[in-house]
Amino acid sequence: MRRRKLVLFVSALLVISTVVSFAQTKKLTRIGVNTFAQIKGNIPTAQVMKTIAEKYADDIKYGFDQVGMSHVYLAFLDQLNAGAFTEKTIPVGDKFYWMLFRVQGKVKIWQDVEWAGKQPLPVFSLTARKDNKDYEFIIPKPCGNIALYRVTEVRIQPPALPPLCNLLVTPAKANVNDLITVDMSGTENATSMDVEVFTAQGTRVATHAFTPVSPRWQTKFDKPGEYVFRAKAVNAEGKVSENPCQARTSINFPPICKLWTSCLPCQDYVGKPIVFDANGSTDADGQIVKASFEVTDETGKVIDSFMDTEKPFTWEKVFTKAGTYAINVVVFDDMGAPSASADPCRVTFEVTQKRFFFLAEVGGLLARGTYSGFIFGRLGMMWSLSPDVLDLILRFGGALPTQGDPWKAFFMGDFLMNLHLGPAVYLDAGFGSTGREQNVRKSGVDLIGAFGVNIFNNYTNTGSIFAEVRLPVITKDRDSSNHHKLLLGFRYIF
Known about the structure:
Blueprint: H1 2-23, E1 26-28, H2 46-55, H3 57-66, H4 70-82, E2 86-90, E3 95-103, E4 106-115, E5 121-130, E6 133-140, E7 146-153, E8 168-170, E9 173-174, E10 180-183, E11 192-199, E12 204-210, E13 216-219, E14 225-234, E15 246-251, E16 260-261, E17 273-277, E18 288-296, E19 302-308, E20 314-318, E21 323-333, E22 346-351, E23 356-367, E24 372-386, E25 390-401, E26 410-420, E27 425-434, E28 444-457, E29 462-472, H5 480-483, E30 485-493
Parallel strand pairs: 1-4, 9-15
Antiparallel strand pairs: 2-5, 3-4, 3-7, 5-6, 6-7, 8-10, 10-13, 11-12, 11-14, 14-15, 16-17, 17-20, 18-19, 18-21, 21-22, 23-24, 23-30, 24-25, 25-26, 26-27, 27-28, 28-29, 29-30
């Protein structure tokens, strides 16, 4: 009795051990021992796969029936017949649902198998789709065992909606080389979009492809005119949008500058206003709103500038120094575009200073004797030998006494050099001929010296106050003590 109980206990232990053993994951450490189907070579051809499907179809069906996957059998066989396989490797530690192998010619099945080899397992992979699931099967190289590796739910996509193209181009008007933004982010149901750009004459000048992730593009144009953008969208099924999808942008024509000057050449124009006139400038698609004037000297240095923001676009400029200058004018339209540098609005010109002037003088004179008073007046001519430095003066005139005998009116004729000591001060020196201021006196030659100060100077006309001394060249009848004269007067040069 006791022996019978021992036998039952041992049998129970063996049954429990067997159940636990089958419940545990099978560790597969090597491949190629119990092969299900022999595969020659490491890379089977489609024909080899087809041969396996034909030769081992019954064995494969038996295995699929045993694991409860009879419904997937035909789908798997179709993949074998088609040779639709890829190559991959299975990492160490990855598991399979089950594996078909062969022992002594009989098909065997291991369930819950783990690859526990030392290296990743090279395999051929086939995927069979059945009932909205993808079943990935692997065949290890080169043993030909068949294992179920992955089962993936397949989400059936509804038919793609028709694409709806949306195109926005900004700004609608821009200047040459301004950035133009093309935006197709409003497009619906599309996997890709593209746009073509044409000139108003129909010439294609650019293309660009978009994606939903990158639906914007920036471009620019180096030529003015109107440009047409034509776009389309494509959905996941390759259907092209049918709604109109077009936009336009206009690239501004820059203004054309035209310059007129009041003198060319500008002879004797130091001190005179010169007018620079840009009113003849035009703009094909807008209007001129301002003009920039800039004057440079012969070294290229900017000496003056002016911005006119109101019509008429003119600038009146007075040059105070002779020389060679250049005037450069740039006009701007209502889009802010400047005129091109090639426009005929840069002119080089020479400004010369007036060399010949008339002069008139008037003032009071004291003649030595009793220092009797006279009123004098003179007219003359002046030649500028070196502008603003040295002049030659030739003048004639006379003086009238403010009292009677023995004083009488007398004549003066002078030849002088006029030396500028600065912008407002000058000295005169020279000789003059003086008539008799009394009947008992003699006419003769005087040495002349004068000091003057300008009270205004417009370069073309000048006014100054001067003090003058006339000393006689000493002769027997004309001594300096009785024949010198003092003058205070106003000089006007024009």
